[in-house]
Amino acid sequence: MRLGDLEATHVVTYGSPGDMPIAGKWTGDGLDRIGVFRAGQWFLTQTVTDQPQAAYSFTFGAVGDKPVVGDWNNNGIETVGVYRPANGSGTFYLRNSLSTGFADRTITLNFG
User: What total of structural domains would you count in the chain?
Assistant: First the structure.
């Protein structure tokens, strides 16, 4: 089987041109939901419908950051983070809730 052989179960339009698409299990029920990251703004849905609405909308990160999603504290709920590249290295800023605030965990990587 090839990826191109799969059929979509839902086709939705969500976000604006230039948004970065993301998916995660933010409700704790084990099902992925969709969202977008827009220059530090997060818009996350709680259901997958033909006309999705943001259930969570908050600021975390900045222009130029790359969005990441994961279960950073191993509680079964995925939350957000950003990767901020800088001169051959970079820093991950990870948040344990779907809300505006400071990073709960910061990891800096130095390459080379």
Answer: 1
- pLDDT for residue 112: 60
Taking only the tens place, the pLDDT of each residue in 79-103 is: 999 999 987 789 999 999 999 999 9
Q: How many CA atoms lie within 13 A of 32 on its CB side?
A: 9
Task: Give residues with Cβ within 8 angstroms of 38, minimum separation 6.
Answer: 15, 16, 18, 19, 20
Residue 3 in this model has a pLDDT that exceeds 80:
no
| Residue in 99, 90, 45, 87 with CA at minimum distance from that of residue 66 | 90
Contacts of 33 (CB under 8 A, 6+ apart): 23, 24, 25, 26, 27, 44, 45, 46, 47, 48
Token duo for residue 38 = 């827009």
* Structural domain boundaries, residue 22: 3-110
